[in-house]
Design goal:
- With 261 residues, the chain is mainly α.
- Among the domains are: 82 residues, no CATH class; 73 residues, no CATH class.
- The protein is built from 8 helices and 7 strands.
- Helix 1 packs parallel to helix 7 and helix 6 packs antiparallel against helix 7.
- It is elongated and about 115 Å long.
- The two termini are 32 Å apart.
Length: 261
């Protein structure tokens, strides 16, 4: 019986697994089938801004440069934010350089993950070598949430649509299984049918004829129906056909059926 159920439900499980694979994106094993993409000719946003802060000319890319919004979304500092060069008015007196720790008299101010970080112009080369190490100096040591949690990336629309489909499919499968029980069909088969076809499984189920009526609960020896009561010849009260005596007038009765208990 179990092998029969697995054999009938295997196509539904295979289709559902393929759907989850499509929602999750390209499988891990397909990485070696596609050629490796060439490195992007565009410089990183942090390197580009540091070069501009030193007064250097940005390198020629030979093509259309990406917009600031695209760079903040696809690249950026630590892959979670962007580096912006603030105007001169954002610089405050008596500020300390976050690279060397000395007061900044004439330098630049960067906005990194929402933090204003001043730096000397001659310290920008050192900052460019290891930006994450110097940025870690200004982060709190015992903070519960860092800048990575301020604006986390949202899941794609494919995951949202996939979640809605899964919830709707589960509800449709449960409804199809409930209707199948009342019509005498297998609830397991129709649950997976509703899981795959959603509400389209209900018209298919309602068009099928009623199955065999289940007259007893599996595993219980007691019959699900009770015989119709018979009136007592002495007082007229109804009694079970298996009763040997009327409980109201104590008139002896002739049992017609063996007792159910």
């Amino acid at each position: 019986m179990k092998f029969f159920l697995i054999h009938r439900c295997f196509p539904f499980l295979l289709c559902f697994t393929s759907l989850l694979t499509w929602i999750g994106g390209e499988p891990a094993g397909a990485a070696h089938l596609t050629p490796r993409a060439a490195p992007s000719p565009h410089p990183k946003p942090s390197h580009l801004l540091v070069a501009m802060a030193r007064g250097e000319k940005p390198p020629e890319t030979g093509g259309t440069q990406r917009s600031e919004k695209g760079e903040a979304r696809t690249g950026g500092f630590q892959g979670t934010g962007s580096v912006r060069l603030l105007p001169r008015t954002a610089w405050k007196p008596a500020a300390l350089c976050f690279v060397c720790g000395k007061p900044v008299e004439d330098g630049k101010t960067f906005l990194i993950k929402g933090r204003r970080l001043p730096a000397h112009t001659h310290c920008l080369t050192e900052f460019e070598k290891s930006p994450e190490r110097y940025f870690a100096r200004v982060q709190p040591r015992a903070a519960l949430f860092h800048e990575e949690f301020v604006d986390p990336p949202l899941p794609g629309n494919r995951w949202i649509y996939g979640g809605v489909y899964v919830v709707f499919a589960l509800l449709s499968g449960a409804l199809a299984a409930y209707v199948a029980v009342g019509r005498g069909h297998s609830p397991t088969v129709w649950f997976f049918t509703g899981l795959l076809l959603n509400l389209l499984a209900l018209p298919l189920l309602l068009r099928r004829p009623h199955g065999a009526e289940v007259k007893a609960v599996p595993g219980l020896p007691k019959v699900p129906l009770t015989a119709q009561p018979l009136p007592c010849p002495g007082c007229g009260h109804g009694n079970h056909p298996s009763a040997a005596q009327c409980p109201f007038c104590h008139h002896p009765l002739e049992p017609r059926y063996p007792p159910e208990t």
